[in-house]
Write a structure and sequence with these properties.
There is one protein chain. The chain has two domains: 129 residues, no CATH class; 46 residues, no CATH class. A hairpin with a 6-residue loop joins strand 9 and strand 10. The radius of gyration is 18 Å and the shape is globular. The protein starts with a strand and ends with a strand. A four-stranded antiparallel sheet has the order 7-12-1-14. The protein has four helices and 14 strands.
Length: 197
């Protein structure tokens, strides 16, 4: 089984939320987050009453709910929007890559040229020297940090994230209202990507 996650994160890969508890309380007050519960030893949240105002679903999928010894053939089926859950991990000490099995070759943000090399080698080179690593586009000659490359919402970088579990790539995205709320609460812009592992 693989997990699919819609990840919201600051556009500045070094940005973090100073008071995470206050952010969580605000997201609950504004109806994005519901009640907290334990999920495999971590705190997760159910969607709040206004969740679908903040996250726009373009499609959904069927989820088979298996509890205990139920035969999967007779198990209830529900819409995936009813089974999403949210986590807000503590920030990391430095930017990390949010990407998994769905990572596609990034593009040059200036000319659109697709990166032709091994993505793992590119990420390893960045990981070794996160502050100074730069990529030179072989077509237009422009130099970019790995954060500036166009990862086509299939990967991203940052220290802070909000994870919405159970969302397939391309299935949903943050609404403009979500972006406005996060900017108001944190003081910086946010974006999103899809993560699958």
């Amino acid at each position: 089984m693989s997990d699919k996650i819609l990840v919201l994160y600051p556009t500045n890969p070094k940005a973090i939320v100073d008071d995470l508890e206050s952010l969580i309380e605000s997201l609950q007050r504004f109806g994005f987050l519901g009640e907290a519960y334990e999920w495999y030893g971590e705190t997760h949240y159910r969607p709040g009453p206004l969740f679908l105002r903040y996250i726009t679903f373009l499609s959904s999928h069927e989820v088979i709910v298996i509890n205990g010894g139920i035969d999967p053939a007779s198990a209830p089926r529900v819409d995936s929007r009813e089974r999403v859950h949210i986590s807000i991990p503590s920030p990391t000490s430095e930017p990390e890559f949010f990407g998994g099995a769905n990572v596609l070759p990034p593009r040059c943000p200036k000319c659109g040229h697709y990166y032709q090399g091994d993505i793992i080698e590119l990420l390893n080179a960045w990981y070794i020297d996160k502050e100074n690593f730069r990529w030179h586009c072989p077509i237009c000659g422009t130099v970019f940090s790995v954060y500036e490359m166009d990862w086509r919402q299939q990967g991203g970088f940052g220290r802070q994230q909000i994870q919405i579990w159970g969302v397939w790539p391309g299935e949903a995205r943050p609404s403009e209202e979500m972006y406005r709320l996060l900017e108001e609460l944190t003081g910086f812009d946010w974006t999103y990507c899809y993560y699958r592992f």
